Amino acid sequence: MRADAQRNLDRLKAAALDVFRERGLDSPLEEIAKRAGVSVGTLYNRFDSREGLIDAVVPELLVTNLAQVRQDADGADDAWTRAERYLHGLLEMQIANPALSDAIARAHPGSPEVIALCDAAVDECSRLLDAARAGGPEFGRDDVGAWLLANAALIKGGGADAARRMLAVLLAGLRAP
């Protein structure tokens, strides 16, 4: 690849990350091209579709953020606190990063790698909750997925505090005898 083409590619990826982080995966591609200092044609020449651009930048973002959520949860002394930290970590990740909230909510389901990473996060959450519940109320994998979708909807509507309250209610219900 020519040096100028590589620079354009690098700028497009960096701009896409910035715009997706700020506004989510539905951000205008024109905004990404503008921030990268290239034409929309150059963007489409490098990435044949929005999904191609998402595939190029979102998996690494997910891996990094989900690893941090997991690391924070792993520092807990007991199963309940690990599950609680993981749920809080996922929620705060969704609030802080609209791109990741969209990814988890499957706003763009065309990316097998993104889907696999999100499925792994849901599976991990479900596993941690299973370990924490030990005979308590049932809250399975499908429930985790529904909770993550509800978070995404609340956050998009400007309701980060509402999403936090919903998590507090959910955890209180799971904690109840």
TrEMBL record:
InterPro entries: Homeodomain-like_sf (IPR009057), HTH-type_TetR-like_transc_reg (IPR050109), HTH_TetR (IPR001647), Tet_transcr_reg_TetR-rel_C_sf (IPR036271)
Residues of the HTH tetR-type domain: 6-65
Cleaved signal peptide residues: none
Pfam families (UniProt xref): TetR_N
Domain of life the protein comes from: Bacteria
Coiled-coil stretches noted in the UniProt entry, renumbered to this chain: none
Keywords assigned by UniProt, alphabetized: DNA-binding, Transcription, Transcription regulation
Residues annotated to bind DNA: 28-47
Gene3D superfamilies listed in its UniProt record: Tetracycline Repressor, domain 2
Species of origin: Solirubrobacter pauli
One MF annotation (Gene Ontology) recorded for this entry: DNA-binding transcription factor activity
Protein name: TetR family transcriptional regulator
PANTHER family xref list: HTH-TYPE TRANSCRIPTIONAL REGULATOR BETI, HTH-TYPE TRANSCRIPTIONAL REGULATOR RUTR
